[in-house]
Amino acid sequence: MTCTYESSRVTLEREGEARRYSGGPIGAKKAGGSFLCPGSVNLDSAQAHFHR
To answer: Could you give the dihedral angle defined by the CA atoms of residues 23, 27, 33 and 36, in that order, rounded to the nearest 10 degrees?
Structure first.
């Protein structure tokens, strides 16, 4: 089963000199997936890592 969610206006802060960002909390609405997927989710935190 796959659930897809979308969120806008997400703000992530850079962690030092690393290519790592984190932030939260984030709320997202369902964009696709099974009828078993919740209509929305709330995340306490989120991270993004960029590699060269």
So the answer is: 120
Residue 23 pairs with which residues in a beta bridge?
46
Q: Which amino acid would we find at residue 50?
A: F
Q: Which of 23, 12, 19, 21 is nearest to 45 (CA)?
A: 23
pLDDT, residue 25, reads 96
Q: Which residues of the chain have pLDDT under 70?
A: none
Q: Note if the bond before 25 is cis, omega within 30 degrees.
A: yes
Q: Which two tokens stand for residue 21?
A: 């960002």
Distances (CA, A) of 2 to 5, 18, 30: 10, 31, 11
- Please report, for the chain, the start and end positions of each structural domain, with discontinuous segments joined by +: 13-49
